[in-house]
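Project standup — Tuesday

K.O.: blocked on the structure for the chain from last sprint. Re-posting the sequence here as requested.
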Amino acid sequence: MDYNKCLDLIHEVQKRDWKLVFSDGTTQILRFPLVGATCDECADEKITIEVEVLTLIRQRTKIPVPDIYSWGLAAGNPLSLGAFILMEFIQGVSANHFLRDAETAATTQHFELDFDQIGSLPTPTTSFPALIRPLTWKVHNIAQTGGGLLLVTERKGSQLPPSIYFQYVLGQDWEQLIRQSNSVTGPYNAEMRYTSFKVLKSLVPRMVNGGYDRGPFKLICDDFGLASLILKSKDDLTVVEVVDLEWSYIGPAQLFTSAPWWLLQDRPINVEWDCDDHQPPNVAARYFKYLEMYKRVLEEEESKRPGHEKKQVSKLIRWSEDSGAMWLHMLLSCGFNDTYSFPFTQLRQHVGIDKWKSLRWKVNQEEVETFVTQKTTHLEQYDQEVARMEVDKASVDCGEVSREDFIAGHRRIHSTRYIRRKTNIPVPRVYAYGRSQLCRHATELQVFIIMEQIKGQPLTRKALETSLEPRRRLFLQQLVDVFAELRKVPFTRGGSLMPSNDEDIELDSPLDIVGAFSIRKNELQAAGYTASRILTTSAKEFLDEQLYILQRLWTMPCKDLDREQAEREEFAQQFICQPEILDRICIGPTAQSFFLAHPDLRPGNILVDDELNICGIIDWEYTASVPQCASAPPTWITGNDSGLADLPSEFACVLSSMKEKSRYHSQLAAEWASRDPLTWSLSHILIDPAELDFVFWESLMPNITGLCDIPIPNDEQLQADVDRRFAQYLDESNLNVEGREEEIQRLLQQARATIDQLKRGTVAHS
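H.V.: unblocked you, prediction finished:
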């Protein structure tokens, strides 16, 4: 079963079932993207595409598809369960064990749908802002296994011809080959994959069907096969429903009318299909037998349907077989990941083994050697880091290292690597990390990390203040680009980044969100307080968690704290917690998108050159996903910090001028331009509760006049609250002496008696 499918537990063999049966006998099915198998940033798009394709097929064909009763995005789910579809349920059996005219009938009807542009499906039903590029099964699979920035790639322009689109899709495999650290198994394998990919790329132009180069384009579903058909029963093979159409998009006609890969209900790139010594696997004979059956049934079906007398579909399928394009199509849909895969071996044999070898030898050998050296180094680093991580995990399993220390040791590594892999933000490369005895005479193990040294010096306030306006503007433009890059990786939950699989942590495995561990939680734990790590699924939960940290942080004992300062802190806490104030940042009870934030983005963590060009962003260990309403630039940008009076207006001007650069820049400009000084102050305090006293009195209070009408507690109230806090601290620390006078007097008497005995003993000894 395809692990990327939504949870459709009726039509699959899983035992968990979200089937809803109502009192009137109506049965519906509730589906969610499978957590862990679907990228968080793709869940909404995956759901909306299925809604759009089911609506389109229902409106424009007679293919039976389930009726949709309701659907929603993650932000609109009141239960914080993510994106969902509630649809009709029809009893039946899967057709994955049958090959009859049911599949071919659906194929011919699908072919009747024409489109004038390659890309994502239009979204008139959902109004979802989908990118132009299609979300395919392959590109999602590459992103899940660490293949690079494929989900945010966007093709511009319309009328994209198939030849250019095929090169674009192969470019996704190239990105995986380059970016994934373990994409090769050794020097020979690296050389083979590089040269074979270059040959494959050169063959694309000759495998484009000129008859459909300008369209019309067709509806493609990467996961459409026999298992997508629900039959009435094992005896009655009438198709009653077509399901699992989430990986749908608009593509070249020759992709739709290619010899299908799904005839044996298994993707031909799986290891069971691999060819040894260029010999086909045992299943190959069965595949070709079923292919002949499929072509025969398809021709029979076309002859029955009006308008298909020319048998366009069956002719194109035969063309794909005769030209060898069917093997290219399988690689485009499933992925180029192994030169021993069944479709790749078949394509090589179609071209000719000797000709293929000659084409490989024509590839620039200097490029090959450079690639082999680079990938071999990456593979060695990968193996070392995985081995080191397994040792660290074994230390956790046997109790030598606590889970908290393990997480702390790997947080910075995984956050930095994730940012480097998913965005274009300049961050240092991690070379090595682990736990070791770093000092010669020390016995304790220490966590360490060895990373790339980025050329540049830490940004200083003086450099910003004294730089010329054009140079400072260029710096702000680059900083806005950094914030926009962080918007490219949304999440449905709030927390810290960690590997998604504790049992088998792999270097390029997708990361998951766990309960956040922040700078302030670290301070609380160091002071002996319990700092819970809650995984937040809504802005409201995030708010409650941050307010809890704020209250615990500001009730900790402080040396030489006078009453006036304590009253200032108490007043700030009470003011911030007023519902009327919290409503200013539009926090509702439902979920919303979360985005990565660098909570310690002070000037010193931005490395620049002499021209104020950003060379790198460092110190990502406390990176966390925060709700959209709480995301904000640092205080020295928004004016909530002293010393850079003109910077906020300059930043606002730069942000506004860049709103057309991308949809992420547009989102930032629209969102941040609408915030007033009070909202900025609240956002900063929520992100870092330690900023409460400074931000509240230096920035928030001067702007509060006229914004709200909150009653200010009188002196008696403040004094009572301060006394309550002090008494609570004494109780928690077991320092409250009330009612213990007799015990204290007894201890004093014992102490005096002991001192007297010591004195007498000393005198006697003398």
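K.O.: great, moving the ticket to review. The chain has three domains: 19-361, 401-501+512-703, 737-766. The chain has a mean pLDDT of 77.
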